[in-house]
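Open question from group meeting: does this chain pack into something compact, or does most of it stay loose? Before anyone orders reagents, we agreed to write out a predicted structure and look at it together. Recording both the input and the output here so the notebook holds the full record.
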Amino acid sequence: MGVVTADLAAVKSAAVQFLRDRLDDSGMSQTELAKLAKLERSHISEMLAGRLERFSLNRVNQVLAVFNAEIETSYQFNPPSLNPTPR
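Structure tokens returned:
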């Protein structure tokens, strides 16, 4: 597992813990959350059980949005210099 993949897995895991906590606090059922997130209840159940490998970042964010939260990402491209440094 690469560093980026490991980092993303850790962030998704933290997001799922957030979802568990918000569900407990709100008293909302998995069925209600699924309806609000426009997903199947089985997807919510899998996600909350920690089976995250099948869920994209966008899908996790779709559920987080119900609680006005999101995983934010940023990318940066660093191309090699077009003018090699003289030796």
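Observations to bring back to the group:
Helices lie at 3-26, 30-37, 41-48, 57-64.
The mean pLDDT is 88.
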